[in-house]
């Protein structure tokens, strides 16, 4: 089981490594690692398990955050109704994701982004594409997939894909004023 002790921080130089393409078909080792990464995300969003194992909640995790320089990432974003029933979820275990299209329209998360590899709370807006199209191999469905992501999901996907190129969210901050509103951008609550 992956816990916070397995996740490297931005003080570790490996977080800046550019991850390598993963050979397909997926090895058992890589598939198992992706499933462990997904388990971390689900456990981290469960209040009891998160507290018991001291997990920081996360919606995405890239293999490089475990010190593994492979182009693999997981995303788990559930949506719930007022009664707490899950209505939808984005659940992906992606290998070799590639950005194939995006809108010029920018967007940013009003509350700012956070990262399991960045222990301190750094405030600033991260300009990203409001909509992206990504192609990848998905280990959950065992298929090549083409994903169209909008809004919060789009932000998460771009955040995790940045990790594969050694980029951290705060690298995108406006250097002079990190909290300066981004003109004409869609604001994601």
UniProtKB/TrEMBL annotation:
Lipid biosynthesis as UniProt keyword: no
Superkingdom: Bacteria
Entry's cofactor comment: Binds 1 Fe(2+) ion.
Gene Ontology biological process terms from the UniProt entry: translation
Annotated binding of Fe cation, by residue: 115, 159, 163
EC number per UniProt: 3.5.1.88
Catalytic activity, reaction form: N-terminal N-formyl-L-methionyl-[peptide] + H2O = N-terminal L-methionyl-[peptide] + formate
Cofactor(s) needed by this chain: Fe(2+)
Molecular function terms from GO: metal ion binding; peptide deformylase activity
UniProt keyword annotations, A-Z: Hydrolase, Iron, Metal-binding, Protein biosynthesis
Keyword field contains Transmembrane: no
InterPro entries according to UniProt: Peptide_deformylase, Peptide_deformylase_sf
EC top class, as a word: hydrolase
Active site: 160
Function: Removes the formyl group from the N-terminal Met of newly synthesized proteins. Requires at least a dipeptide for an efficient rate of reaction. N-terminal L-methionine is a prerequisite for activity but the enzyme has broad specificity at other positions.
Family: Belongs to the polypeptide deformylase family.
NCBIfam families for the chain: pept_deformyl (TIGR00079)
Name of this chain's protein: Peptide deformylase
UniProt source species: Sharpea azabuensis
Organism taxonomic ancestry: Bacteria, Bacillati, Bacillota, Erysipelotrichia, Erysipelotrichales
